[in-house]
Amino acid sequence: MREFIYYSKNAVTAGNMIKDNLMKAGRMDIVCNVIISVFFTSNAMRDDVKLHLIFDGPPNAPRHLVLESNEEMPISKKNVAGLIKRMLYKSPDSEGLLEVFPGASIERKSFEHLVKELDSEGKDVLLLDEKGEDIRKMNLNKKPVFIIGDHEGFPSDKKKFLKKIDKVSVGPRVLFASQVVTVLHNEIDRKESQ
Ligand SMILES: C[S@@+](CC[C@H](N)C(=O)[O-])C[C@H]1O[C@@H](n2cnc3c(N)ncnc32)[C@H](O)[C@@H]1O
What we know:
The structure is a single chain. By secondary structure, this protein is an alpha/beta fold. The protein has one domain: 3-Layer(aba) Sandwich (Alpha/beta knot). The chain is built from 5 helices and 8 strands, in the order E-H-E-E-H-E-E-H-E-E-H-E-H. Helix 1 packs parallel to helix 5. It starts with a strand and ends with a helix. Bound molecules: S-adenosylmethionine.
């Protein structure tokens, strides 16, 4: 299982705030690009992949959305925002994942709570950061969970919280979040095919 957490400080947390201009919905356009990179290759959907999205924008933050590869998940590259919008409309204002569609669930949960929870499940939680250890030198034997920031990275309180987490780099340049996902998938694909 390849697992990712994408954190967005500004992504909106109500369905009616997602309109035609996704950039105005707290950069929901970037969220959509990340989702496409996490789940799709040229003509197939990756299996065994899970994506956690934490949206910390107005008006109902925090929201934790989980997408998990599932043949029945109603996801199309052309309407990723529509799926997010429908999930936000159905979101409970409490903890406890509500499955809105097969492979698509939502709840109220903070970034910190999610990271602690995955860590306590014995997963190897790693922060993607260009200054981290080179992914090519790392041994990814345990179940890895990769944390990615949005276009602004992480706010100072989240940076403080993430201080003790090991950092992993996919290369020396600062890339778009969706590019990081593509490169990371490729590195793991190559390792797995050796
Ligand atoms: C567009 S970058 C954020 C840039 C932002 N201005 C900052 O200072 O963090 C989005 C996210 O991609 C990840 N990232 C970018 N380049 C990376 C690299 N070379 N290796 C690993 N992760 C990277 C980081 O998690 C970052 O928060």
